[in-house]
Every structure is written in structure tokens, then in C-alpha cells.
Amino acid sequence: MKKRTKAAAAVSIALVLACGAFAGCDLITTDASRDMQQIIAEVDISSSADFAKDGEFDGFQSAVGKAEISKRDLIASFIANYSSFSSYVQSGSATMKSIFDTLSNSLVERQIYLQYAKAYLLKYGAWKEESAERETFSLSEYEKLLQQEYKSDVERDVVLLGFFLTQEERDRTDYNLRVMFNGAIDDAEEEFIDKTDDETEYESDVRTLPTGVGTENSDYYDTAYRIYTGAGDNATNYGSYERLKNSTVTSRRQAYDKFLSNLRRNNLLLAGENTNDIETLSYFQIERKSAYEDSLVRKLSDTFTAEAVAKITEEWCNEQFANALRNQTDNFKNNPSALKTALDGVSDTSFVLTSPDNLNYGFVYNILLPFSAKQEEELADADQDYADGKGNKFETRARLLSNVTATDLRGSWFTGETDHSFTAQSELNAYTGGNANRTLLFFEDELQGENGKYERINNYLGKYTYNGTYDEENRVYEPNVIKIDDFIAEMQGYLNHVLGAGSASGERTESYGKNYYNADGTVNYESFLYFKGKVNFDKFNANEIFKSGSRENLAMSAINELLFAYNTDPGGFNKYLGYAVVADKTDFVSEFEYAAQLAVKGGAGTYTVAPSDYGWHIMYCTFSYVDCVEGTASPYKFEYSQRYEEGTFSNLYFESLKPEAVNTDATNRRTKIISSFKDCSTVYEERYSDWSNIG
Length: 695
What we know:
- By secondary structure, the protein is of the alpha+beta class.
- It is 40% helix and 9% strand.
- The chain has helices at 13-16, 33-36, 71-91, 96-124, 139-147, 153-162, 167-189, 249-265, 282-309, 314-334, 336-344, 373-381, 394-401, 412-415, 444-447, 484-499, 551-566, 590-602, 649-677, 689-692, and strands at 39-43, 67-70, 362-370, 421-423, 440-442, 468-471, 476-479, 504-508, 531-535, 579-581, 606-612, 615-624, 681-683.
- It has a 6-stranded antiparallel sheet with strand order 8-9-11-12-3-10, sandwiched between helices. The protein has a 3-stranded antiparallel sheet with strand order 2-1-13.
- Strand 6 and strand 7 form a beta hairpin.
- Helix 6 runs parallel beside helix 9 and helix 7 packs across helix 8 (249-265).
- The longest helix is centred in the N-terminal third of the chain and has 29 residues, at 96-124.
- The two termini are 48 Å apart.
- Mean pLDDT is 89; it is low at 1-31.
């Protein structure tokens, strides 16, 4: 299974490989390498009072030294950012001079920050949130590296930057840089790949995927990963790199040659360089230096973040929670529309902590098993029920509902361009519905993979086998056909498989199909309720609904998986907690509204089955405001001690509070650093005037 995740290039790789990015626009000059090596700016913050006697960094002058920014650095930055500001130049809202001045200023500020980072880390060390100890650095060891001889200034800079990074951080930085190069060469290679013999046909209508499928873990790295340029006979020994479909040595070499041509055209390839080894190119080393700089900046930012978070007290957090709860209580009581708006906006960073005195508010997942096109047509053409003066067709609909069928709709996850399936091993304890031939699951890398390359999919359990068969050789799948009672059996069977026998139970209602009208002539919606059941949580804990492995999350994740398998409601996929349900009149169709409100009233874990003119609706209450913490008007309780327990409400709420406390602090510190040392830089604008005066 191949998933390509593109990352932004460190400095200029994206546009260097953007075949002919500057063709015809007269921006590229024929400057010689010597011209490109001109120094257009110098930065040395060790000349400031902070490094003088009794200053904050007295004794750390040697750690900084003078940084020189070359014209080559400036042009590389220009190329990298060309697409973002070319429209401004063309429209006249910016000049080339203003753009180059902005770029040179940003490069200067970057060097100020990097120099400060070295001095700060040497004196105070690095710190990560949740870490008990700081990582320390030895000034004497750093000075030893300063005294060594290097092949080039870039090599020296990479070594000195790497001193502040752990081996894991260096490996991850190198991996990400190689991924960038391979991804860019992949893009170039697409032009040269012969696809005439590719007769593979993929499903054009691929079923919606859970959010997060194919998302690479930012912490992942592969030390064996290498850049493939077409050297050798094949792409072996390149670690986890995967060649493009139909890639050949020839197509790869053509793409790499185009890459080299663009380097030459932009004066980024020096004469005499060994192009057979891409990692020896001066351009690669410049990009590597930039990537190491980025890692050092992140390390200082992480330290600043950790220091700011350490100032967040339990008292302050409790006060924020109490204030938010009080404000929402007052607001929602007097303004019901505000509650509806808030419920629609619920997320990991936006919480509805309470509801008014009438607590029948919450969320439901909806799984729609639809009428077939023929059944829809028959219902539309049917006469009204006998003696029904309102024109309703409840009897006809009930007859059609008994024959509604459903199938597992995940077939395109086999036959799309990416096959997401894998054969479940016995240790996964997958659910088969008693059918030993059901063996296929999905998203092994994101759910069962142990290499950590991909982020785990949240709230999708991944143990419900495909309800059907798949012929891998012929790429043909055949889903089993089920009716509503079969689906209910599958749903309850899966919940009991996951949570334990007897955890989920329910029963057919006696009212279904009887007395469609009340004595006063109004519709009796209870007569449409087909089934009602509930998951036994003992006491539902809203604080753990997103905590992986909790009963609350296991149940919700199992239902969400069934939703992706069977649901045909296009608006129901990848919703945070499902549809928001309020106690009064809604925009939902009336039968749906009744069953959804009934589920919410029953509390989280309650599920109801009812029809509408669309088919069968299976509604599962994921969250209800009837499940309040004892003695309070909120389902939630903030616990400072759980702030780092991933997935808990306390963790999510703490994370939502952090930006207010952390971002302002970090921004202020960076601004102060830049302004404090801005006088320690010199810019030579005349040395890049041949570029800034173009146009």
C-alpha cells in the first residue's frame, strides 16, 4: 500500500524542480558562481551588550560568531517563495525591490534567532513539555568543534547545528529532507513515465475514508531511506522509498537530469560537482543546513513552549473552566439559539460544557440504510393509506421497509488506486459475525502497524471484517446482502464482541406499525420506533469519550466503523460526535427527530431504529447532557492531574487553554529577541540590486 505525503521543501527544492518555472520571464541572469557567493548581509549578535561582561550571555561569545548570508541564499529563498508573491508583482501591488528587501530581512531575522538559540541552549539547556529534566550542552565541547577543520563552511555549519540536536532529531531531519527530494523528483518523473500499457482501472467513486487515513507521523523516520536518482539497475537499498508505478531506470534518470538542468539554470550547481551522488551536491548540503536550522528553531520554540506551559497553574485552569461553565449556563438559559450554534461548532478546541434545565441535548451518529431506486419510485407512486385524509403512505412504506436491503459498501477500499485491505490475523480478535470466511480488515498501517509511519485513526476501531468476499486476483468483491434485523444483529454482535457479552442489548418495540395517529389526529411517532437498545456503561464517563481503549470510546468507535461500512447519508461521515440534537423542533424529518431525541434522552449509548421516506435510520447517541457529573450541571469535570492523559477531556481542555498562555508568550519573546539584536546586522542592498531592480 503506497501513500505519498508531500512536505514543504526546506528552502527552494519545490520550484527548482518545477520544470521551467521561470521560462520566458527574464528573471534568471547569467551571474557567475563568484557573483552568487557575494555576502549580502552579516549578523553577529555577540557584539551586543548581552554578551559583554556581566551580560546575560557573558562567556558565550565564542558560541555565536559572525553569520554571513550569501546572494545564493537570497536567490534560493526567492525561488522557493516565487509562487506566493509573483501575482503581487504582476498586479503592481509589490515591487521586486520590496520583495527582495523583505526576503533579506527575513534571512537576517532568522540568523539572529539561530544565534540566540545557540547561546540560550548552551546556557539554559533544552526542555520539552512533560519532560522532568532539561537537556544540557557543554560549551567546551562546542568550542572543540569550532576549532576543527572542515571541507566547507556549509559542512561546518551542519556540524555545529547538529551539536544541539539529538541523534534521533538529526536522523529525522535527514529523513524528512530526503523525502522532500524524492517527492519532488517523483513529480518530475510523472512526465517521463510511459502509462500507455497501464490498463489498470480504479473505482472512480471511492467511498469516503475516515479522517486521518494516510497521514504520516511527523515523528517517524527511516535511517535507511535514500534518494533515488535512477543510479544502478533498480531501486533496492533505498530504505522505505517506494518507486512510482511504471517507473523505470530511464524515466528516473530523465527526471533527475531535469532536476540538474534546473540547478544549473539557477546557478545552484557548481562546476565539477559529482552529480552521481546527490547528497554530495553543494545544493543538497545547503538544503541540509537549512533543515538543521529549522530543527534548531523548533527546539528553541519547544523550550519556550515548555517554559510557558510550566507557568500554567492548576488554579488558573480551574478558574478558566469555572468561568466558561458559568458563562455558558447564563448564556444558554436566556439564548437557546446560542446553544444550537455552539453545539454545531463542538470540536477538540470548542466545548459545550452544559445545557439548560431541560437537559435533552446531545449528539447521534446516523446510519442510513436506504430504499432502492425502485422502492423510492414505488413509494412516490403509491396512493395514500386507506382512510388517511392527510395523504400519508405509512402502510405502503412499512411494507417496502421490510424488504430494504443493505450491503457493506467498503468495496472501493479494495479496488481504488490504493488497496487499504489486509488479512486479519487471529491475535487481532476481529469480528466475523460467525462467518470464518470473513477475514479482511482495513488500514493496517494506521491501526495495527507497529512501525509508526502513519498517525493512528481516531474513533475508528478497525476490527469489523468486510461483510462479503473479495477476489484479489480479479479485483472483484461481493458483499453479503442483509436486512434491518440482520444489521441490528451485526451491530449488537460487534458491540458485545468489543465490550463483552451482554454489554449491548435491546428489543423490538410493541408499538411499531400500530396506531399511526393519536386520538387528537396528530401523528403518533412512537408507532414508527422499530427497535431500541442501549450499551451498558455502568456510569457513562464523558471525560473519557475520546480516550482510546475506554468503554465509551470503544463503543463509539465501533459504531463509527459500522457507519463507514453501511451508511448512505453523505452528511454523516467524519462528524465530530455526529448530528447535534436539541430538545425542541429541529430541521430533521419528523420520524428521525423523534427517534434521535429519544436516543439522546436515554443517554449516551442508547440506540434507536426508525424509518423515514429515505429508508431505515439507526441512531446511536454518542453524547448526551443527561449524563452529568453527580451534583453538577455538566457532563465534564476538569482534572489538572489528567492534563497529559491523551484523549481525556482534561487533556483536550488543557490543550485548548495552552495557546492563550503559550502563543502570546512565545511571540513576545521572539519579537523581543529580534528587536534587541537588529542593530547587530548589516545588509548590503547594492549586492543584490541586479535582481531587486528587475521590472
